Each structure stands twice: as structure tokens, then as C-alpha cells.
Amino acid sequence: MKPTARKRPTGLTRYNNRAPSRAMNRRQLLSATAAVAAAQIGSSSIPAAPGKPALMKLGCQSAPTSEQRLQFFARHGVQGICGYPEDSQKQGSFSVEDLSRIKERCERNKISLDCIEPGFLASSHIDKTARPAIMLGQSPERDRDIEGLQNTIRNCARVGVPSIKYNMSLLGVLRTGRTPGRGGSTYSTWNLADARASGKFTPETRAGRVTADLYWERITYFLDRVIPVANENKVRMACHPHDPGVPPMEGFQGVDAVLGTPDGLKKFVAIRESPYHGLNFCQGTVSEMLQDPGKELYDVIRYFGARKKIFNVHFRNIRGHRNAFQETYPDEGDVDFVKAMLVYKEVGYSYLIMPDHVPYHPDDKGGDQAFAFAYGYIRALMQAVDHMA
Question: Could you tell me which of 7, 98, 272, 279 has the fewest CB atoms within 10 Å of its CB?
Fold first, then answer.
């Protein structure tokens, strides 16, 4: 009986079944790898021009922005940062000297200072904020603080710092506890039902009842005075969404957090039309706004990315959905990070991609291990999508 001839594997099957031949060059291998990765994304393929480079770069943020932290960033491939100059709480603004000092420190470590954050609009609870007049709507104090920010914008332009990220939050980052994760880690967790039942949250903050209309009035007051100065000086103003979203109208702790939905963010960027008015697009926070982030997030990225309203990205993953989620490592949440990175490439996003809110482990109290993992993961994704058609 004549033996049946074995069918010779071809194409990608051949590469999957055995090691590639020595004749296969690096370009062929990268093309094959990219094809496999693209196929794994699923039926909703992402268009991208062949050879079109991924323009974004690996970033991070750190307070304080010390020599030690900058060396840590440099060792792990971080290319640009959001920096935190000293004494912002005391001054209410940053001088040319403040900004020059931190920029020179970055340049010594071959890292670009792409962004800074003003301390008095930092992401912290209203009861802990040193200069809360802007968000409390207190005049004339808020006019003093807005003037300080206007001076910081002008000084950023003089020094060559292209962006400022800020937060217009009254509630800060709301969380209810921690959930066990892999390798003994724990994940920061929010569950609205648990928050309501726990008794841990006061009925109101010292901001009192803040309706949507009142919140929008305060936001508009701020933007009307800040964005024209940003336009004049060509400094991008990147606002972080409210983390997490809370029930519209009902709110939480008496506050209707209006920047906690995609529609709220759309309204926000439309208040003052300007190429210098946009978002610190926290992908984790936006995922927290959605009922099914694994399906819905990519179109939200497209909406703001296509309109050039994304000035900075916090690239983190969650497991769950609006009102109930945990913050995971980047490779295990509900959002497909390969697909997300391809969408940023598709819309031509060209600024920082930063890890954010990494899990906690008692052997990694400062989070350096978790951040190092995230840096490598993000950098590898950037290199991979560079080779995807």
C-alpha cells in the first residue's frame, strides 16, 4: 500500500509549526508576527496605512521629579514626562526659573519635559486641596488662582513646555477598597452599591450641593479666562475626566460630576473651540464610564482622537464596567490594549502614553516593579503596531 504523502505546511501555519528557516529575514518575521496579531484583534479590523509610523511615545508622571526618578525613567525607556516643579502650592504659579530648573534636569537624563501639572488644580479631594477656590466658585480668590495659572501658561511658553494637565474635580478619585489580584497583588476597586451602603462617605463635601448647571458654570468661568491665554501662547491645556463617573443628576456626595460621561467630555471640549483645549484622556477613567468598555472604548478614542482633542493618555486597564470595576495590570483587563494602541495610531495621536494606577503589592510599596512591567508592555505594543499594516 502506497504511503500517504504528508502535506507540507505553508504560510503562517508553517511558521507556527516549526522554527522559521534561516533564510527568513527579519522583515518577513515582523510581517508574519504583525499579521498574526492583527488577526487576533477580531472581526472589527482597524484601518492603518502600510508603513504609517506610530507617533506616540512612552511617558510617565512623577512627583517629585527628582534626579533619582528621572534615572529610573531613563533606565526603563521612558521618553517624556509630566513633571512637577517645586513650590506650586506656595506660589500659585510656576516661574521661568522653576520650569527651567526641572527642564534642565530632564534634559540631563535625555528625557523631554512634555507637560507639567499645577498643584492647586491637582487630582485630590476638595477637603485636601490647598487652593480650591476655582472649583468652589469663590471670588475673588478664584480670580487670583486663575491669574496664577495664566502666568504659568506664559512661562511654559517661554521655557518650551508645550502642555499643562489639570483636573477640575470636586470629589477626587473615589474608591471603596481593594480586590485580590495575581501574585499577591491587590487592585484598587470601586463599587457604587458598596459605597452607598458602607457609611464611609459623607453625604456632602464642604462644596455642598453642586448641580450640573452649577458645575458647568464654574468650568465655563475657568475656560473663558484660561483658554484664550493658552491660544495666545500655544500651550495645550489637557483636562482629566472625573474618576469615576457617578450617577448623572443624582450625583454622589451631593456633586453631579459632569465630566464623568463621554457626552460630558464632548460638551467640555466644545465650550471653547481651540486646538489648545482638550483632554488628558485617562483611558482607565473613560473605561469606567462605560457599560461594556471592551466594546465601546475604541469609538470614544476615535471621536476625540480624530478631532485632535487628546493631549495626553493614561493607558491603564480595568475589569468591570461603570459603577463596579477593579484596576488591573495592563494585560488582564477587559480592554484589548493591542486594539486600543492601533486606534491611537489610526487617529495620528502623537503625544505621551503613560501607565497609571498600577496594582499594589507589599513587596513593591512604591510601585516601581509594576510600573517597570507597564513600561515594557507599552513600549513593546508601540513597536508592534509600527509594523502592522
Answer: 7
